[in-house]
Write a structure and sequence with these properties.
The complex is a heterodimer of chains A (196) and B (160). By secondary structure, chain A is of the alpha/beta class. Chain A has 7 helices and 9 strands, in the order βαββααββααβαβββα. Classes of the chains: A alpha/beta (196), B alpha+beta (160).
């Protein structure tokens, strides 16, 4: 059981794209060679800015809701677990449904695997592997008080995707005047079309 | 829970789901094995204790009460356990539990065949050893240990 005081904070503005999280994750015994955390570039043509992508552990996980094989489960401490090996049929429904682009299907295994916040570590009081190696504090794991003492930004776990509101376990560091993150995907698609 | 009924059958919460992991299943196997081992140990211990408490010696009959080739029913070690004493030769007595090991009918001595026969299902036992000769009984008859004390026949215990 993960201590509910301890929370995961992502601060994309601190990410320096070093890939330490990616490589640390891929060294894990439970999925050796495959990283469950990913590094996304925001706009590769225009910027060097990168964003670490780990599972946000939604309160009402879309991946689990769309799973036809009943393979994705949320534990009592709020962690959305990787697909159950015995049930996952590798259909990719979760990959398409996740608003944060987290789950991935590994065709060799015909399985979906995703970040489970290093459940083997965090449930025994240790920090997730990616957090322990992040040199810039883009990924942190601690109490809200610790973060408030260290950072100017505030954190939010509310995301608005069009008409849908998503509340997550993982916190995202945002400017002080932001309450929730409004992700207007259609606007982004239009502007991407203009620059192309 | 709100929503369609099928959502109750496929809950997202791990706690509500009936998924059994391999580790959980193996754990249950280990516990069941341990429990069955302990139960066997307890049964074996109880049987060993019961065996140790052998029945007290009891006078069964006088030597000349039974003719050679004759038999006598007696109860030993308690009133609910009928036994059969057989005089095979002038100085040779044998005794067995009288309940057939098949379904509990009383066995009878047949001098002609030198066997103890059960009329219910035609099971028969060797009267010199108590072992099954034919028929459905699965085990030999319990043997009553005897001793000749002067002109008396004494029962000293029963071995299954």
């Amino acid at each position: 059981m993960i201590d509910q005081e301890m929370e995961f904070f992502i601060d994309p503005s601190r990410c320096i794209g070093c890939q330490a999280c990616y490589h640390a994750c891929s060294e894990c015994e439970t999925h050796r060679g495959e990283s469950m955390s990913h590094l996304a570039s925001v706009d590769r043509a225009q910027s060097t800015q990168t964003v670490p992508v780990v599972c946000m552990h939604c309160e009402d996980p879309a991946c689990a809701k769309v799973c036809p094989a009943d393979a994705i489960k949320k534990t009592a401490d709020g962690i959305v677990q990787s697909a159950l090996q015995a049930r996952c049929i590798g259909c990719s429904n979760c990959v398409l449904a996740c608003p944060f682009g987290v789950p991935r299907v590994y065709p060799k295994l015909d399985q979906m695997m995703k970040c489970d916040m290093c459940y083997d570590r965090t449930s025994t009081g240790r920090k997730p592997m990616c957090v322990t190696v992040c040199p810039s504090g883009a990924l942190s794991f601690g109490t809200r008080e610790e973060m408030a003492a260290k950072r100017r930004e505030r954190s939010t776990n509310l995301f608005q995707f069009g008409p849908q509101k998503v509340r997550t376990k993982v916190q995202l560091m945002v400017p002080k005047d932001v309450d929730e993150v409004d992700v207007d995907i259609t606007a982004f698609m239009q502007s991407a079309g203009e620059t192309a | 829970m709100s929503g369609p009924a099928w959502k109750d059958d496929f809950p997202i919460s791990w706690v509500d789901d009936d998924f059994v992991t391999r580790r959980e299943f193996t754990k249950s196997l280990v516990w069941v094995s341990c429990a069955s081992f302990a139960a066997n140990l307890a049964l074996a211990g109880r049987a060993a204790l019961a065996e140790r408490g052998t029945a007290p010696a009891m006078k069964v009959a006088g030597r000349e009460d039974i003719p050679v080739g004759g038999a006598k029913v007696f109860h030993y070690p308690d009133e609910t356990s009928p036994c059969l004493l057989v005089r095979l030769e002038p100085d040779r007595f044998v005794a067995y539990g009288q309940k057939c090991t098949h379904l509990g009918c009383p066995v009878l001595y047949q001098q002609r065949t030198q066997q103890l026969e059960c009329p219910c299902h035609e099971g028969s036992f060797d009267c010199t050893t108590g072992r099954v000769v034919s028929g459905p009984p699965p085990r030999p008859l319990p043997v009553v240990a005897l001793e000749l004390r002067g002109d008396e026949v004494w029962a000293l215990g029963v071995s299954a």
